[in-house]
Amino acid sequence: MEPIQLRHARFASSESHLQTLLVQGNGGEASAYHEFLRSLSGHLRAYFRRRLFQRPDDIEDLVQETLLAVHNQRHTYRADLPLTAWVHGIARYKFFNLLRARSAREELHDPLDDESLLFAESDTDAFEAKKDLDTLLSDLPERQRLPIVHVKLEGLSVAETALRTGMSESAIKVGIHRGLKALAAKIREST
Asked: Structural domains in the chain?
């Protein structure tokens, strides 16, 4: 057999085996269902690894979320349809949810260094910029000022800042986002 034909034969065999296990599992055979989930997890790891090679920490989370969704929706599977199409639909949905969530989280982290007006070219400029920044920060409410000072200026993590200030991690992220927007608006007003 040629390599591509061999791959197709292995895929068809794997598809058939997984489908049989799921149908048996849905019929009440616990050991078949357990084997289905174990085998499927290997396929899902490979599926996500090809898509998240730069983010390996997310792979296992997505495998578990997808397995849970497959488990919760197993009653919707129709045995006359390809199993992999059904599973990959669920996996793609979980994958896109991760991308949307990551995008939303990253939006909350506007880097302070994007504001070119905050850069200084000499020690004198640096001192003046520090005074200006202190003045700008002093006008912010504490729930915005403290997260910016601790995370963006001191380099603490969001979790460390939450512990230090007593605010939730979510409040820290929102405070940074809103505070940086307010700072940028004040800088634009002054120029």
From this structure: 3-107 (1.10.1740.10), 112-190 (1.10.10.10)
Q: What pLDDT is attached to residue 135?
A: 81
The pLDDT tens digits for 115-173 are: 444 444 445 555 565 667 778 888 899 999 999 888 888 888 899 999 999 999 999 99
At 77 the three-state DSSP class reads coil
Q: Is the dihedral of CA 18, 20, 24, 26 positive or negative?
A: positive
Q: How far is the C-alpha of 191 from the C-alpha of 176, rounded, in Å?
A: 23
Q: Could you please report the per-residue DSSP string of 4-54? A: HHHHHHHHHHHHHHHHHHHHHHHTT-HHHHHHHHHHHHHHHHHHHHHH-TT
Give the residue from 6, 82, 18 showing the smallest Cα distance to 44: 18
